[in-house]
Amino acid sequence: MLTPALRIGIIANPASGRDLRRLTANAGLTSSTDKAAVVQRLLGAFGATGIDEVLMPPDMTGIAAAVLKASSGRHARDSRWPRLEFLDMPLRQSVEDTRLAARMLAERGVNLVAVLGGDGTHKAVAAEIGDIPLLCLSTGTNNAFPELREATGAGLVGGLYASGRIPADIALRRNKRLRVRLPSRGIDEIALVEVAVSPLTFTGARAISRAEDIAEIHAAFAEPHAIGLSSLCGLWNPVSRRSPRGSWLRLSPEADEALLAPLAPGLLQACGIVASGSLEPGVARRPLLAAGTLALDGEREIEFAASDHPSITLELDGPLSIDVEAALAYAARHRLLAVTGNTVNHPGEQENVHAID
Q: Gene3D superfamilies recorded for this chain (predicted)?
């Protein structure tokens, strides 16, 4: 019987980190060259841990082209990169490219999907792949969901998990999510970090960058060090990724108390806070505004009117992701990266390398 190939997908969003906030604030830029370099570091780590094949979508910005060129070079051969295949798919240069690529990877039976992007990219992928784990790499503007990680270490963990060397109960973390429903229009969407309610009645440029454009925030988790809309909850009513609850705030320019918060990198705004509390799982909350827009993970996506009655519900059964710190700690305890000699070998392929309990 043939052993199933160890197969990993990589989705690098070419548009992540390029939105309007690059002009309205002093946010940095992750170029296509940078993203291609991140993918190459992942491929080296996957090759070192025995991954057979990597699947990627094409793009129009040069990421795939740079990776393909590098795959025929000496470094790729010496590092034993996995076989590389690019998905045969049309490109619309929109979020639909990310969604389609995620569906195609799921259909091909990948063990893991490495995602290069911000909160919105991870949300789009998570909505399509079910319980296939995410390996999250931050290359967007607001990056609350994907934590900052070096691709080499993250890739080693991803490869060790996909090859069965790290058990799922150690390597994986179940995340929370927020479900947004407008039954009258058949809308059922998710957010991984926060849903903001805005009095603006049109989506426009999507990103929210002014305090007066925020009426409410509902956050699945909110950490004090976060950047983005969830930072308001994180600095006022914080809640961890592990906590079985969420956080909410109500804002008004007329509030007696204001909070200075980083709504985007380099963009500090004083936001008036009038009320706050906890989000309990399974309890639907309705915005106080009769009409406006809903921003999911930082970008306005849904316009609503008085007849729509949108609801926002915290769920505890969100996507799975690799817990890089926990998995690396396990790899260290069990010497999973121990190799013989002074050449790069696949950990676990040598008879004299044993896990230590």
A: Probable inorganic polyphosphate/atp-NAD kinase, domain 1
User: 172-231: per-residue pLDDT in tens?
Assistant: 999 999 999 999 999 999 999 999 999 998 888 788 989 999 999 999 999 999 999 999
User: Tokens 């990310």 appear where?
Assistant: 98
Name residue 250's amino acid: R
Predicted local confidence at residue 230, as pLDDT: 96
Q: For tokens 């893991």, what's the residue?
A: 112
| Low-confidence winner among 54-58, 143-147, 152-156, 291-295 (lowest mean pLDDT) | 143-147
Q: Report strand pairing: 257-264 vs 267-279.
A: antiparallel
Measured between alpha carbons, how far is 130 from 184 in angstroms, rounded to an integer? 26
**What pLDDT sits at residue 25?**
53
Contacts of 213 by beta carbon, 8 Å cutoff, 6+ apart: 198, 199, 200
Instruction: Please give the backbone phi and psi of residue 95, each rounded to the nearest 5 degrees, phi first.
Output: -60, -20
- Residue 187: both structure tokens together: 């809308």
Rounded CA-CA distance 312/309 in Å is 10
Helix, strand, coil percentages (3-state) for the chain, rounded to 5, are 25, 25, 45
> For residues 99 and 122, what is the distance between their CA atoms, to the nearest angstrom?
10
Q: How far is Cα 40 from Cα 52, in angstroms, rounded to an integer?
A: 15
